[in-house]
Design brief:
single chain; 131 residues; 24% helix; globular
């Protein structure tokens, strides 16, 4: 069974606003999927949120289980996305797949390359954005 995503209230509200602003854009499928994930999410207070949960600005190491390949990315707002710096928009399929999950969770998600099983290896959240 798929784990339930967990969001802090701030991220949840920010993502809801982003979804409203992005309704008519090209990534409508991802916007819809993100909205569905938020619909089933657990909303937690910022102070009680587990530090191993992926949120906006998290640095994440994930593994494509079948390909046995790891990659490090940072999940950012669309305006800060930069592939060469491995900063992936929250509206990208990969980010939508893993946001709200935590270290050691495994998620099956349909990406452009097909259904992938992604394992979250490590999550680093910094309270100050000095990246």
């Amino acid at each position: 069974m798929k784990p339930t995503p967990i969001f802090c209230k701030t991220d949840y509200q920010l993502l809801r606003e982003l979804i409203l602003k992005s309704k008519n854009e090209t990534n409508a499928k991802e916007v819809g999927q993100l909205s569905q994930e938020l619909d089933r999410a657990i909303i937690s207070k910022e102070s009680t949120l587990d530090n191993s949960i992926i949120r906006i600005n998290s640095h994440v190491t994930i593994e494509d289980v079948k390909a046995n390949k790891q990659m490090k990315i940072q999940i950012v707002l669309p305006s800060l996305a930069n592939v060469t710096e491995r900063k992936i928009s929250i509206l990208a399929p990969l980010s939508v797949a893993i946001i709200g999950f935590k270290e050691n969770d495994q998620v099956d998600w349909e990406l452009p390359a097909g259904i992938k099983t992604l394992k979250i290896i490590a999550v680093e959240n910094t309270s100050s954005s000095n990246s």
